[in-house]
Amino acid sequence: MEEESMSRGATSICGFLRIFWIFHSWELLCIPCILDWCPKLFLGFIDHITSFWHWLKRFLALYWKSLTVLIVPIALLPIILMDDKPENRCLYVLLLVGIFWSTVALPIPVTSMLPVILFPTLGILSTNETCEAYMSEENMSFISELIIALTVQHCNLHKRVALKIISVIGCSQRKLNFGLISVTMFISMWIPNSVAMTTMVPIIKAVLEGLENEGVCKLYIDNNDPENHERSSSWHHLGHSAKKPSKITMCYFMGAAFVTSIGSCGSLLGSGTNFALKYIYENKFTGQKIDNLQWMCFNVPLMLINTGATWLYLQWYFMGLFRVTSDEAIQYNLGNEGKKIVKKVIAKRYNELGPISQCEIQVALLLVVGIILYILNSALNSGFKEAPFSLLIVVALFALPANWNWLKFLTGKSSEFPRTRAQSLITWRYINRKLPWSLFFLLGCGFALARGSKASGMSKMLGSKLSSLGGLPFLVLLFLICLFTQIITEFISSIAIVNVILPILAELAISIKVHPLFLMYPSTISCSMGFHTIFGTPHNLIAAEVANIRTKDIAIAGLGPSIFSLLTIWAAFPTWGRVIYPEIGTFPSWANVTTSNDNNLINQPWL
Question: Is the whole model's pTM more than 0.85, yes or no?
Answer without folding.
Answer: no
